[in-house]
Design goal:
The complex is a heterodimer of chains A (430) and B (301). Chain A is an alpha+beta fold. Chain A has 3 domains: 216 residues, Rossmann fold, CATH 3.40.50.300; 82 residues, Beta Barrel (Elongation Factor Tu (Ef-tu), domain 3), CATH 2.40.30.10; 108 residues, Beta Barrel (Elongation Factor Tu (Ef-tu), domain 3), CATH 2.40.30. In chain A, strands 7, 8, 9, 10, 11, 12, 13 and 14 form an 8-stranded antiparallel β-sheet that branches. In chain A, strands 2-3-1-4-5-6 form a 6-stranded mixed β-sheet, sandwiched between helices. Chain A has a 6-stranded antiparallel beta barrel with strand order 15-21-18-17-22-23. With 301 residues, chain B is an alpha/beta fold. Chain B is built from 9 helices and 10 strands. In chain B, the strands form 2 sheets. In chain B, strands 3-2-1-4-6-5 form a 6-stranded mixed β-sheet. Chain B has a 4-stranded antiparallel β-sheet with strand order 8-7-9-10, with no helix packed on it. In chain B, α1 packs across α2 and α6 packs antiparallel against α7. The longest helix of chain B is centred in the N-terminal third of the chain and has 19 residues. Chain B is globular and about 55 Å long. Classes of the chains: A alpha+beta (430), B alpha/beta (301). Chain A: GO terms for molecular function: ATP binding; GTP binding; GTPase activity; sulfate adenylyltransferase (ATP) activity. Chain A: Its EC number is 2.7.7.4. Chain A: Pathway: Sulfur metabolism; hydrogen sulfide biosynthesis; sulfite from sulfate: step 1/3.
Chain lengths: 430, 301
């Protein structure tokens, strides 16, 4: 059974769910994505024909759906997935963006990238093999990146005779592990991606399973309350001052609401200056709005003339982020050419603010498999994770990452090569 | 949760694209928007209008003109540029042929020779950020490209050496001579674009809607018979009701059979179609499995 096609009139009420997929080699991740696309009529006949032709030419025994997502020449030649691929499908309820992250090569870098914007992460395991080292690693990275919803898909149930016992054992083991991670909302679903069981509709082979199919879960998982509507955080991106004879004296602060709800009349504070004013109006190109909330891009005007520029942040006087130059953070190192070293200086980008930062201390390197902390570590290499202390040249307007993914996340950039070398999650700022 | 705090997927995509455009203008010095008169660049231009309102769009637009144009599209381009008071830069392939920068390929298609012409204009005007309307759902190489896509001093893309892109923290840093291609519509699909065209009541060149045209059938696609495409061998011209799903170089862009003469009908048609837009209409993508990746490496969009 497959989801109906979306007619013209229906689509505008849909919301958007971004999810990341992770799995080890041969867990059937590509087959699962192929199945989701196929069952939602999002797979096109020319794409399928191209994949079939390449599969046949290479002598594959079955149509290799991995070829759908392995778009780069090197990936096809080496038969591996190198980079995060983005895929799109929609049902009448939701539009989905899949960040498909490869399971082996550069797994941490890719997984962290895909998870950084995900509302939900989908981890696949092979029912015959159960949890493997990578499953735990993927779950850990999802919790580190604070992905609010986690789904474990126990795949290839057809190869274990649709056994409830096998499923329960894996589900219990994973649930116990996830509890240690402060894992968010967790669901476990038995599936067969190849046969389509519990993908778009409930499987008849597993009457003992009483939960929803995967697609039903993806369509209905409640994501609206994942947004932080409490803490007003509006990083100023750009100051709009038209040089025009028809629009005079306009001064608006353009940006995307990171969290909270802004309304005209609200008393606000501007950081880092600490000056206060009231919101005069919230403008969009379609006219003023009565409120602004995430993820809206708007232009805020204030009642008073205050000197505000890019990188400043508008919040409420009684609920402000830290104005901090000493940052404690978890770091994932993403660069293969040079390791992170204590004393290293980097450009740091946090919301719309760019500063310089020096690494003061590396407290420990974390083994993502055992969660063991190596306090003797002097550097972080590619794909390694650690906790460190940074000192910045100018203050960041920062929250803990666990409280706010936008005002709690940052990247480090190598000032010589301009490469993005690290992803950072703020633990403490003062 | 009051329903008022719900955001439709289209509003979320719009907000993301506007954020991306503002980041570029805030962080890079000389942006330009690639405007072909195609539907994606028309949507991009609308987003630029919204991102900076009530100010004017703070960058020029550029058209890489292959000389193989649909007249309806050129007319549209010039009208839109005038309405918005924009500065238009034309990077002309015919001029580059004359000056010897590029040589006409033997098959007469100019898709590939656009790239040196584009790069020449980027160098001449010292553009450091180029907005393109490419979407990740279009093609498998594009599915792996960043929103901020770094190009070296030769305009080349290195797919194995892309900058990781986390959260909405885009890295636009580059050295002199290098540049960033920016794709604000990365997460939009063809259907999203059409829904947005309907929502914003955007005017499009007429060839996007069903009309009668004399065509020939070649490689399973319908090509308009015009000054660039003549029947070969046994090909018999016939009249068909068609529309264009994409608008590219007129010598290699095909039409599809369609009765969709309004935006609502096009949306229904796109929602029901089982063939990708590039697969249905672009001869240039059929060269090889990795045709798009190879062109992108050279500096193509």
């Amino acid at each position: 059974m497959s989801a109906p096609t979306i007619a013209a009139s229906e689509q505008r009420a849909m919301d958007l769910l971004r999810f990341a997929t992770a799995g080890s080699v041969d867990d059937g991740k590509s087959t699962l994505i192929g199945r989701l696309l196929y069952d939602t009529k999002s797979l096109f006949t020319d794409q399928l024909a191209a994949v079939e032709a390449v599969s046949a030419a290479r002598g594959d025994e079955y149509t290799n759906l991995a070829l759908l997502t392995d778009g780069l020449r090197a990936e096809r030649e080496q038969g591996i997935t190198i980079d995060v691929a983005y895929r799109y499908f929609a049902t009448p309820r939701r539009k989905f963006i899949i960040a498909d992250t490869p399971g082996h090569i550069q797994y941490t870098r890719n997984m962290v990238t895909g998870a950084s914007t995900a509302d939900l992460a989908l981890i696949l395991v092979d029912a015959r093999k159960g949890l493997v080292e990578q499953s735990r690693r993927h779950a850990f990275l999802c919790s580190l990146l604070r992905v609010p919803h986690l789904v474990l898909c126990v795949n290839k149930m057809d190869l274990v005779d649709w056994s409830q016992e096998v499923f329960d054992q894996i589900a219990d083991e994973f649930t116990a592990f996830a509890a240690k991670l402060e894992a968010p909302d967790l669901s476990v679903i038995p599936i067969s991606a190849l046969k389509g069981d519990n993908i778009a509709s409930r499987s008849e082979k597993m009457p003992w399973y009483e939960g929803p199919s995967l697609l039903h879960h993806l369509e209905h998982v409640h994501i609206a309350s994942d947004r932080n509507l409490v803490d007003v955080r509006f990083p100023v991106q750009f100051v709009i001052r038209p040089q025009s004879t028809t629009v005079t004296d306009y001064r608006g602060y353009a940006g995307q609401v990171a969290s909270g709800v802004l309304k005209p009349g609200d008393e606000v504070m501007v950081l880092p200056s600490g000056l206060t004013s009231r919101i005069a109006a919230i403008d969009t190109a379609d006219g003023p709005v009565a409120e602004a909330f995430p993820p809206m891009s708007v232009t805020v005007r204030l009642e008073d003339e205050i000197d505000i520029s890019r990188g400043d942040l508008i919040c409420r006087p009684n609920n402000a982020p830290a104005v901090a130059q000493n940052i404690e953070a978890m770091i994932c190192w993403l660069d293969e050419s040079k390791p992170l070293r204590v004393g290293g200086k980097y450009a740091l980008k946090h919301t719309t603010r760019s500063v310089r930062a020096v690494v003061r201390d590396l407290h420990y390197r974390l083994d993502v498999n055992s969660l063991h902390r190596d306090e003797e570590a002097g550097e972080l290499k590619l794909n390694e994770i650690g906790r460190l202390k940074l000192r910045t040249t100018a203050p960041l307007l920062a929250d803990e990452y666990r409280r706010n993914r936008t005002t709690g996340g940052f990247i480090l950039i190598d000032e010589t090569t301009n490469r993005t070398v690290a992803a950072g999650m703020i633990v403490e700022a003062n | 949760m009051p329903p008022a705090y719900r955001v439709s997927h289209l509003a979320a995509l719009e907000a993301e694209s506007i954020f991306v455009m503002r980041e570029v203008v805030a962080e890079l010095e000389r942006p330009v928007l690639l405007f072909s008169g195609g539907k994606d660049s028309i949507v991009m231009l609308r987003l630029a209008e919204k991102a900076f309102a009530p100010a004017r769009i703070p960058f020029p637009v550029m058209h890489v003109d292959t000389g193989h144009n649909f007249p309806e599209v050129l007319t549209y381009r010039d009208r839109r540029v005038a309405e918005l008071g924009l500065h238009l830069v034309v990077a002309s392939v015919p001029e580059a042929l004359e000056s010897g920068l590029v040589v006409e390929p033997s098959d007469g298609t100019r898709n590939r020779i656009q790239t040196p012409v584009l790069l020449d204009a980027v160098e001449k005007y010292r553009f450091d950020a180029l907005f393109g309307g490419a979407r990740r759902d279009e093609e498998k190489a594009r599915a792996k490209e960043r929103v901020f896509s770094f190009r070296d001093e030769f305009g080349q893309w290195d797919p194995k050496n892309q900058r990781p892109e986390l959260w909405s923290l885009y890295n636009g840093r580059h050295h002199s001579g290098e540049s960033i291609r920016v794709f604000p519509l990365s997460n939009w699909t063809e259907l999203d674009v059409w829904h947005y065209i309907a929502q914003e009541r955007l005017d499009l060149p007429s060839i996007y809607y069903a009309h009668e045209r004399t065509v020939i059938s070649r490689d399973g696609m319908l090509y308009a018979v015009n000054e660039f495409i003549a029947p070969r061998g046994a090909e018999q011209p016939f009249t068909a009701k068609v529309r264009y799903r994409t608008v590219g170089d007129a010598s290699c862009t095909a039409a599809v059979e369609s009765a969709a003469d309004t935006v609502e009908k096009v949306i229904d048609e796109v929602a029901a179609t089982r063939i990708t837009e590039r697969g249905a209409t672009r001869g240039d993508d059929r060269v090889s499995e990795a045709a798009m990746e190879d062109r992108k490496r050279e500096g193509y969009f």
